[in-house]
Design a protein that fits this description.
Elements lengths: L1 H7 L8 H15 L2 H13 L3 H23 L5 E3 L3 H12 L4 H20 L2 H8 L2 H23 L2 E4 L3 E4 L5 H18 L5 H13 L3 E2 L2 E2 L25 H4 L1 H29 L12 H18 L4 E3 L3 H6 L6 H13 L3 H4 L4 H15 L11 H17 L2 H18 L8 H16 L2
Antiparallel strand pairs: 1-6, 2-3, 4-5
Length: 441
Amino acid sequence: MEFIEKTFRLQAHGTTVRREVVAGMTTFAAMAYILVVNPSILADGTGMDEAGLVTVTALAAAIGCFLMAAMTNLPMALAPGMGINAYFSLVVVDAMGVPWQAALGLVFWNGIVFFLLSITGVRRQIITALPPAIRIGTQCGIGFFIAFIGLQHSGIITSSPATLVTSGELVEPAPLLTLIGLLAMAILTLKRVPGSILLTILAVTLVGLWVSTGSGTLTPHTDAIVSLPAPIGQTFLALDFFYLFREPETAIPVVVTLLLVDMFDTLGTLVGLGRQAGLMNERGEMPKMSRALTADATATVAGTLLGTSTTTTYIESATGIEAGGKTGLTPVVVGLCFLLSLFFSPLITIIPEAATAPALIFVGILMASGLREIDFGDPGESVPAILTVLLIPLTFSISHGIFVGLILYVVMALLLGRRERLSVGACVMAAIFVLFLVWQR
């Protein structure tokens, strides 16, 4: 206990071992889906061994979590990123025809550049150049993004060819249990019950064992509890480091795309989580930002050596922060859970989406409370901020929300004669974003 206290300074942060453990388990419960989804996405487009990718995903997540804990002592967890894995698998490998070994090499070089930008402080300067309205919009947009994912996973909202999204069958087991879980979570939180989010996830999972659906029970029954990890020999150190130099015409655009999306997804996530956790100083900056970015970049490099696409900070960390996580002990617990999942994957993977969806919806709503900080009486501030809020969930991209929001903010400030509100960094980034969006057409 003395070692833990000395390492993570729990008392100084006003937390306890128990609270950090609960926070870590809560975060892991919200992130555990990546053990199923990431291998499936990568295998579908690349032909990589799906069983081995489960092991790779867990190891990459654990390494990323341990790096974040060791380098920052912040309560943020990492794992192979959603969205960027689809780009890697379905666009770079499947559509463009780049071999998956070469694609891993391109992610590796993206991580190296990301690392260099982090240790030189360039990325910290980028985040401080973002206007406050865009930072607030990013936090709230991530909140709506998280809530939208929860609503979608639970079946409360579904796709529609006419209106894009529409209401699901709310009286079906999954949506109904999600709403009941959300109600229970909110009440338990108001009553200040410790571990309210994790308790709700476990309760819904247990109830789901007796709730029938068309294909069985909501929480699937499993005969096995323990299993051995699948080998990773196919992907370990299989990346092609030199594809970038052999095929620069194809490789360089991919690396640039990976870098910009990775950078601003990570920056946006860290800003949103930092604001939620109360880590921002009076200048709107998050201490240890450079270290957090360096940990993120290092995790990406490590992940490519194992055989997965970009590893990044997860927005689901918000669930653990809301559960009381304040130090690096939280991601350490998450990392240990990922390692244990290698042996208990049959048990971990039965957690239904109806159990984790209430946590995503609830935490997303809490993060969206930053809307009250937007100056709605000033369209020069509110319009770019709200556009950022809307675009992040509607485009499923934190980076694109930031891109468009910042471009609009700079243009409006220039047209309104408010040049004093703009930094050189904000103007330069807006110009780069315009070029990037045009180039992507």
